[in-house]
Each structure stands twice: as C-alpha cells, then as structure tokens.
Amino acid sequence: MSGDALHDRVFLTRVLEPGDETGGRWVRELGVGEVARRLRGGGAVLPGVSGKRWAGLRARAGNAEPGRDLAAARAAGVRFVAPGDGEWPRQLEDLGDARPLGLWVRGRSSLRIWALKSVAVVGARACTEYGAQVAVGLAAGLAERGWVVVSGGAYGVDGAAHRGALSAGGATVAVLACGVDRPYPRGHTELISRIAEQGLVVGELPPGDHPTPSRFVLRNRVIAALTRGTVVVEAAYRSGSLVTARAARRLGRPTMGVPGPVTSALSAGVHELLREDAVVVTDAAEVVELVGAMGELAPERRGPVLPRDLLAPGARRILAALPAREATAVAEIARGAQTTPDDTVARLYELRALGYVERHGDGWKLTRQAMVSVGRGPGDR
Q1: Is residue 367's pLDDT more than 60?
Q2: Taking the C-alpha atoms of 132, 133, 139 and 143 in order, what is their torsion angle to the nearest 10 degrees?
C-alpha cells in the first residue's frame, strides 16, 4: 500500500466509527482517497449525510493526525493491516460495507494465517465458576488440537478462554474495543500483555482511543467474521456474546452453545440461542466436528459397558423376566420373556454359569450379585 493510501485509511479510522456502513459505502463507491479528501474539506459533502453529522465528521477530521497515530503505533509495537495487504483476513469481506477500514495488530504472528483456523469463545463477564471452568477447558482443548481461540479480552468467560488457550501452550487472539496500545479492562493489563507476547491483540480503533458501549457491540461483528464459528459459554438474555453469535449466524458461520443449569439466569441466553438454531456442544471435540475438516468427528458418547450388556439378547430377556425376590417356575419365566420353556431352561443354565441366577427346587431367581448389576432392589417384584 502506498504511503498516501495508508495515511488516508489511518485518517478514516480516526474519523469514522467502527461498523459505519454509510462510510463503508463511501469507501467502496468513491475510494479511500476521495472520501478522505472530502472529509478534509476538499470537495462536496458526501452523499446520504445530514448537515449535523457532516459537521461532526469534519470536526473529527480536523483533529485527525495519521502520522502521529502511525508513530504511536510503531512505538508500541503495533502495525496497521488494511484490506489488500498480505496479512488481511479475507473472510472480513463478508461484512460488506461494515467491514473494518483496517485493523491495528499487536503481536508477531500473521493474523490472516491464524484466522484461517480459529474459533470464537465468548460469554458472560460476570460468569459463574462453572462458566469459567468450561471456558478454560474448551479453549485448552481447542488449542491442543491446533485451533486459535479468539475472544474479546473481557472479564469472565473471555478471560478464561484466553487463559485456557495460553495454559495449553496454544494461540489466542484478543479483539479489543479500544486502541490496542491501552489494555482494557485495566485489570487484564497483564493478561493482554501476555496475549500480545504469545498471540495477537487486534482492534479497529487507533492508538490511545477509548472504549464505549457501542464500540463493544460493534467489535463483536469482527470476532464473528474473523472466525470459523462461535461458541457461547454462559450468557444472560441481554448479553453482548449473543450479539456475536447472531452475527456469526448471519454470516453463515456455525453457532454453538454450552448448556448450563436451567435455574441460572446466566444460562438463559444460551438456552434461547439453542432454541433458535444453535448447536449444543460440551467439549472441544464437538466444536471441531462442526468447524473442522470433513472427518474430524467427535468420539461417540456412551455410558459404561455393564456385564449384562455383553449378554445375548435372548439371555437379557430371560434376566428381565425374573423377579427379584421369589423363585419362579420355568413356564412363568418363559411367558414373561415371550419364548419357549426349552429355550428358557437353556438360557437359565447359561445365566447360572455366569452367576446371574440360582435354582431353588423347581424355580429360579436372581442372585444377590445380579440384583445389584441389573439395578433391582429387594422391594422389587
């Protein structure tokens, strides 16, 4: 990118808010240079903007100094990545006119390469111990499988996800709603610095810029677009993480949720997401099955194999037909199992050899060992 084009894009990141679709349309239709020229006062008012808003944009333009921003970025070890650059993640183009004008990146790795195999793990800031534990385990499992964990650097689930990935020696990306040279929240200064050392810290806003509620919401579309899918771990009905998940769904990315207690308000938003069309996931293997390559299937889930599971179907029917307390005649057992008396006798001797039944005169009953293994108690028939 030429020096003028770079300065114009950096200038626009200081003038236009993230996700400004009107501004994005100007850039698409007129080009970065022309939009910057007009905002600096070198031409007609840009289309589709009120006089009041135009005055506000012009005031911002008067204070923008792209050279200063680039110098501050270099001093903080931050680079500016723009559409068309080799490091630009092309999936961000899915945002259309709401795509970022560029991204400020802190860290040594390639954002484009990392984004190719990344998953967003997001959730409640005021998460429960359960939510934090799930986020750590999920992120660590993804990192161990070679996936990059992307989140927002916030308290709660976000921080737990970043820590889980780092603890597994994996890769993680924090997408901030402020300048990447000023960690936010302040309590995560050490964590975000560690992410910048081992991973990447990314944001749309120029150095020194501060977060606002609307910027947090708009930041979430970048997390959704950057990644192959989004997992929500705990979220109330009004949660920014649901904004991320729904943005991912609109972009055609898999949307996943980890269920929690139905009595918890912090799981209510996730459960609503699951009622819509998100997929239930409980661990990293299930996430990878949805976002990974064909054939990366999660293991089949089964309960423990019990000794009776190894019996032939006919023997299991005889076992089920035997009462727990009293010896029963062969004819009655055969009726209960819907088979012949001869078949019943053969199966009973087979079961006796395995320790499941014992003979009492002309009748048969379960052994004490069998009652434990089949879940019967002395009060059962």
Answers
A1: yes
A2: 140
CATH number of 307-373: 1.10.10.10
Q: At what angle do helices 213-226 and 240-250 cross, to 10 degrees?
A: 40
Contact between residue 45 and residue 54 where contact means Cβ atoms under 8 Å apart: yes
Of the options 3.30.830.10, 3.40.50.1820, 3.40.50.720, 3.40.50.450, the CATH number for the domain spanning 90-291: 3.40.50.450
The reported pTM is: 0.81
pLDDT digits (tens, 9 = 90+) for 301-319: 666 666 677 788 888 888 8
Q: Give the whole-angstrom CA distance, residue 222 versus residue 204.
A: 9
Whether 90-291 shares its CATH topology with 307-373 is answered: no
Spans of all domains in the chain: 3-64, 90-291, 307-373
Is the CB of residue 206 less than 8 Å from the CB of residue 16?
no
Q: Would you say 298 and 288 are in contact if contact means Cβ atoms under 8 Å apart?
A: yes
Asked whether the beta carbons of 87 and 105 are under 8 A apart, the reply is yes
| pLDDT exceeds 70 at position 145 | yes
Q: Which residue has the tokens 């984004």?
A: 115
